[in-house]
């Protein structure tokens, strides 16, 4: 297992995750490679969640030669993945390779960049669209967004999730890169969530970008700059 406990977050330290993230950070990585990198990182993170957080059970298996004992992951059908539009879309595509039968939700959320960051280090968040599946007590809920900067978006998203579901097996917030301030904001607002991230970076700049970070993930994946 390559998930390490770091105070209020769990770091996904798989070598392929850090390798992929390093390529995503590179300013020379162009749109297609960037998008594919997010897909790959989502798949690796999905496998790590399975390895680190899901139970297995022993089951009898009849091979073509004889009966033996196999080990299966429990609860693979009881997974809900919530895609925070838009940067999470390729990340979620990768996660779905690990959880192909997941129920999916979508929340469109955006920071009001023109309003800018408040003195408290938050952004006003606009939520345009919310469509969530039914969340059951047995479900592992994964809210995916590659960037956790001030945490304002994630807190707003989790408000919607928790308004519709208060009973679930686990609630994971999965990101590729997180800023320390964002991790603290989300863990204080939603203590029942476990925060999983591939990297915890140094700081936020005056515009609320993660430094060193990887820039604007949505713009790089969707080529809107
Ligand atoms: O932690 P925060 O300070 O809230 O910032 C993180 C958010 O910013 C990005 O989305 P953005 O608002 O750029 O929307 P986009 O995905 O459409 O580009 C990112 O994908 C997060 O959703
Ligand atoms: O650094 C950041 C902060 C918010 N959103 C991004 O895409 N990148
Ligand atoms: Mg963006």
Automatic annotation (TrEMBL):
Stretches assigned to the Phosphoribosyltransferase domain: 13-224
Q: Which domain of life is it from?
A: Archaea
Q: Which residues bind uracil?
A: 210, 215-217
* A Pfam family assignment: UPRTase
Please give the Gene Ontology molecular function terms for this protein.
GTP binding; magnesium ion binding; uracil phosphoribosyltransferase activity
Q: Which CDD domains match?
A: PRTases_typeI
Pathway(s) the chain acts in:
Pyrimidine metabolism; UMP biosynthesis via salvage pathway; UMP from uracil: step 1/1
User: What is one Gene Ontology biological process annotated in the Swiss-Prot or TrEMBL record?
Assistant: UMP salvage
Check the record and name the InterPro entries matching this protein.
Answer: PRTase-like, PRTase_dom, Upp_A, UPRT
What cofactors does the UniProt entry give for this protein? Mg(2+)
Enzyme Commission number:
2.4.2.9
Co-factor note (free text): Binds 1 Mg(2+) ion per subunit. The magnesium is bound as Mg-PRPP.
GTP-binding recorded as keyword: yes
How activity is controlled: the entry says: Allosterically activated by GTP.
Q: Which reaction does it catalyse?
A: UMP + diphosphate = 5-phospho-alpha-D-ribose 1-diphosphate + uracil
> Which keywords belong to this entry?
Allosteric enzyme, Glycosyltransferase, GTP-binding, Magnesium, Nucleotide-binding, Transferase
Give the protein's function: Catalyzes the conversion of uracil and 5-phospho-alpha-D-ribose 1-diphosphate (PRPP) to UMP and diphosphate.
NCBIfam families linked to this entry: PRK00129.1, upp
Q: Show the HAMAP family listed in the entry.
A: Upp_A
- Family membership noted in the UniProt record: Belongs to the UPRTase family.
Name of protein: Uracil phosphoribosyltransferase
Source organism of this protein record: Halorubrum pallidum
Supply the gene name: upp
């Amino acid at each position: 297992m390559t998930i390490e406990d770091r105070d209020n977050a769990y770091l996904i330290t798989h070598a392929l995750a850090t390798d992929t993230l390093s390529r995503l950070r590179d300013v020379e990585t162009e749109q297609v490679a960037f998008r594919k990198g997010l897909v790959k990182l989502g798949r690796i993170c999905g496998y790590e969640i399975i390895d680190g957080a899901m139970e297995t059970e022993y089951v009898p298996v009849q091979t073509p030669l004889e009966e033996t004992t196999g080990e299966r992951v429990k609860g693979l059908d009881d997974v809900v993945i919530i895609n925070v539009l838009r940067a999470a879309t390729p990340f979620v595509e990768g996660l779905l390779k690990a959880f192909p039968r997941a129920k999916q939700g979508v929340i469109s959320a955006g920071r009001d960049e023109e309003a800018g960051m408040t003195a408290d280090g938050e952004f006003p968040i606009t939520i345009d669209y919310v469509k969530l599946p039914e969340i059951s007590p047995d479900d592992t809920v994964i809210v995916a967004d590659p960037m956790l900067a001030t945490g304002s978006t994630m807190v707003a998203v989790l408000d919607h999730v928790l308004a519709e579901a208060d009973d679930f097996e686990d609630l994971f917030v999965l990101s590729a890169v997180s800023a320390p301030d964002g991790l603290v904001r989300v863990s204080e607002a939603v203590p029942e969530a476990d925060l999983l991230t591939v990297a915890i970076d140094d700081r936020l700049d005056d515009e609320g970008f993660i430094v060193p970070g990887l820039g604007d993930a949505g713009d790089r994946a969707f080529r809107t700059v």
